[in-house]
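Methods — Computational structure assignment.
A single polypeptide chain was analysed. Its primary sequence is given first, followed by the predicted tertiary structure written as C-alpha coordinates.
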Amino acid sequence: MNLAWTLLLIVGLRLVDVSLGTVRIIMLSRRRRLLPAVIGFVEVFTWLVAATIVFSNLNSPPRMLAYAGGFALGTYLGTLLESWLAVGTTMMRIVSPITSPQADEALRRAGFGVTVVNADGRDGEVRLAFTIIPRRRTREALRIVHDLDPAAFITLQDIETVTPPERRAALPAK
Protein backbone atom coordinates (compact mmCIF):
# COMPACT_ATOMS: atom_id res chain seq x y z
CA MET A 1 0.00 0.00 0.00
CA ASN A 2 1.48 3.36 -0.92
CA LEU A 3 2.15 6.00 1.74
CA ALA A 4 -0.79 8.28 0.87
CA TRP A 5 -3.33 5.48 1.30
CA THR A 6 -1.64 4.35 4.50
CA LEU A 7 -1.84 7.87 5.94
CA LEU A 8 -5.51 8.19 4.98
CA LEU A 9 -6.22 4.81 6.57
CA ILE A 10 -4.50 5.83 9.80
CA VAL A 11 -6.39 9.15 9.96
CA GLY A 12 -9.68 7.41 9.17
CA LEU A 13 -9.17 4.72 11.81
CA ARG A 14 -8.22 7.29 14.45
CA LEU A 15 -11.17 9.44 13.44
CA VAL A 16 -13.46 6.48 14.10
CA ASP A 17 -11.86 5.26 17.33
CA VAL A 18 -11.49 8.65 19.02
CA SER A 19 -14.95 9.88 18.08
CA LEU A 20 -16.42 6.61 19.36
CA GLY A 21 -14.40 7.05 22.56
CA THR A 22 -15.82 10.53 23.08
CA VAL A 23 -19.37 9.29 22.61
CA ARG A 24 -18.70 6.27 24.85
CA ILE A 25 -17.45 8.43 27.73
CA ILE A 26 -20.42 10.76 27.43
CA MET A 27 -22.82 7.80 27.39
CA LEU A 28 -21.15 6.42 30.52
CA SER A 29 -21.52 9.78 32.24
CA ARG A 30 -25.24 9.60 31.40
CA ARG A 31 -25.47 6.23 33.18
CA ARG A 32 -25.78 4.13 30.03
CA ARG A 33 -24.13 0.72 30.27
CA LEU A 34 -24.65 -1.69 27.38
CA LEU A 35 -24.17 0.71 24.46
CA PRO A 36 -20.85 2.07 25.84
CA ALA A 37 -19.59 -1.51 26.17
CA VAL A 38 -20.37 -2.26 22.51
CA ILE A 39 -18.90 1.07 21.42
CA GLY A 40 -15.78 0.33 23.50
CA PHE A 41 -15.24 -2.97 21.70
CA VAL A 42 -15.35 -1.32 18.26
CA GLU A 43 -13.25 1.61 19.52
CA VAL A 44 -10.43 -0.56 20.85
CA PHE A 45 -10.42 -2.86 17.85
CA THR A 46 -10.16 0.15 15.52
CA TRP A 47 -7.40 1.67 17.66
CA LEU A 48 -5.49 -1.63 17.60
CA VAL A 49 -5.52 -1.72 13.80
CA ALA A 50 -4.33 1.92 13.57
CA ALA A 51 -1.63 1.41 16.20
CA THR A 52 -0.39 -1.73 14.44
CA ILE A 53 0.08 0.21 11.20
CA VAL A 54 1.99 3.00 12.97
CA PHE A 55 4.08 0.71 15.19
CA SER A 56 5.10 -1.41 12.20
CA ASN A 57 7.33 1.49 11.11
CA LEU A 58 8.33 3.86 13.91
CA ASN A 59 10.78 5.62 11.59
CA SER A 60 7.92 7.24 9.64
CA PRO A 61 7.08 10.75 10.89
CA PRO A 62 4.18 11.04 8.38
CA ARG A 63 2.52 8.00 9.98
CA MET A 64 2.97 9.53 13.43
CA LEU A 65 1.53 12.84 12.24
CA ALA A 66 -1.41 11.03 10.63
CA TYR A 67 -2.01 9.22 13.93
CA ALA A 68 -2.00 12.51 15.90
CA GLY A 69 -4.08 14.29 13.25
CA GLY A 70 -6.65 11.52 13.34
CA PHE A 71 -6.84 11.92 17.12
CA ALA A 72 -7.51 15.66 16.83
CA LEU A 73 -10.13 15.21 14.11
CA GLY A 74 -11.73 12.35 16.03
CA THR A 75 -12.05 14.49 19.15
CA TYR A 76 -13.79 17.21 17.14
CA LEU A 77 -16.08 14.73 15.36
CA GLY A 78 -16.92 13.05 18.68
CA THR A 79 -18.16 16.31 20.16
CA LEU A 80 -20.25 16.97 17.03
CA LEU A 81 -21.74 13.48 17.27
CA GLU A 82 -22.57 13.98 20.93
CA SER A 83 -24.32 17.27 20.18
CA TRP A 84 -26.28 15.63 17.39
CA LEU A 85 -27.30 12.67 19.58
CA ALA A 86 -28.22 15.05 22.44
CA VAL A 87 -28.55 12.29 25.01
CA GLY A 88 -29.83 13.28 28.42
CA THR A 89 -31.94 15.84 30.18
CA THR A 90 -31.47 19.56 30.79
CA MET A 91 -32.94 21.94 33.31
CA MET A 92 -33.76 25.36 31.87
CA ARG A 93 -34.09 28.35 34.19
CA ILE A 94 -35.65 31.52 32.85
CA VAL A 95 -35.41 34.79 34.78
CA SER A 96 -37.38 37.76 33.50
CA PRO A 97 -38.87 40.92 34.97
CA ILE A 98 -42.42 40.45 36.19
CA THR A 99 -43.62 43.02 33.62
CA SER A 100 -42.03 41.36 30.57
CA PRO A 101 -43.82 38.76 28.43
CA GLN A 102 -43.73 35.38 30.16
CA ALA A 103 -42.87 32.22 28.27
CA ASP A 104 -44.43 29.67 30.62
CA GLU A 105 -47.75 29.30 28.74
CA ALA A 106 -46.03 29.04 25.34
CA LEU A 107 -43.68 26.39 26.74
CA ARG A 108 -46.63 24.47 28.16
CA ARG A 109 -48.42 24.58 24.78
CA ALA A 110 -45.28 23.03 23.26
CA GLY A 111 -45.51 20.15 25.76
CA PHE A 112 -43.02 21.35 28.36
CA GLY A 113 -43.98 21.33 32.02
CA VAL A 114 -43.08 24.62 33.69
CA THR A 115 -42.91 25.70 37.32
CA VAL A 116 -42.98 29.45 37.96
CA VAL A 117 -41.86 31.25 41.12
CA ASN A 118 -41.99 34.98 41.88
CA ALA A 119 -38.74 36.36 43.30
CA ASP A 120 -36.79 39.54 43.99
CA GLY A 121 -34.00 40.19 41.52
CA ARG A 122 -31.25 42.75 41.23
CA ASP A 123 -33.52 45.23 39.46
CA GLY A 124 -36.83 44.40 41.13
CA GLU A 125 -39.47 41.69 40.97
CA VAL A 126 -38.80 38.80 38.61
CA ARG A 127 -40.36 35.50 37.65
CA LEU A 128 -38.28 32.34 37.66
CA ALA A 129 -39.49 29.59 35.36
CA PHE A 130 -38.05 26.11 35.60
CA THR A 131 -38.52 23.30 33.10
CA ILE A 132 -36.89 19.91 32.60
CA ILE A 133 -36.43 19.08 28.92
CA PRO A 134 -34.77 16.44 26.77
CA ARG A 135 -31.50 17.88 25.43
CA ARG A 136 -32.66 17.29 21.86
CA ARG A 137 -35.48 19.81 22.44
CA THR A 138 -33.27 22.53 23.94
CA ARG A 139 -33.17 24.68 20.79
CA GLU A 140 -36.93 24.51 20.46
CA ALA A 141 -37.44 25.69 24.06
CA LEU A 142 -34.84 28.45 23.68
CA ARG A 143 -36.54 29.68 20.50
CA ILE A 144 -39.91 29.85 22.26
CA VAL A 145 -38.48 31.92 25.11
CA HIS A 146 -36.41 34.24 22.89
CA ASP A 147 -39.35 34.86 20.55
CA LEU A 148 -41.44 36.11 23.50
CA ASP A 149 -38.76 37.78 25.60
CA PRO A 150 -35.38 38.32 23.90
CA ALA A 151 -34.01 39.90 27.09
CA ALA A 152 -34.82 36.90 29.32
CA PHE A 153 -31.87 35.55 31.30
CA ILE A 154 -31.63 31.80 30.64
CA THR A 155 -29.39 29.14 32.11
CA LEU A 156 -29.14 25.51 31.08
CA GLN A 157 -27.80 22.70 33.23
CA ASP A 158 -27.43 19.04 32.33
CA ILE A 159 -29.03 16.91 35.01
CA GLU A 160 -28.48 13.27 35.80
CA THR A 161 -31.85 11.87 36.79
CA VAL A 162 -35.48 12.81 36.77
CA THR A 163 -37.75 10.82 39.05
CA PRO A 164 -40.39 9.59 39.10
CA PRO A 165 -40.49 8.93 35.34
CA GLU A 166 -44.18 9.78 35.03
CA ARG A 167 -43.44 13.33 36.22
CA ARG A 168 -40.99 14.18 33.43
CA ALA A 169 -42.03 17.61 32.26
CA ALA A 170 -41.15 17.49 28.58
CA LEU A 171 -43.30 14.55 27.61
CA PRO A 172 -46.58 15.28 25.85
CA ALA A 173 -49.62 15.10 28.11
CA LYS A 174 -51.64 11.93 27.63
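Note: The longest strand covers residues 124-134.
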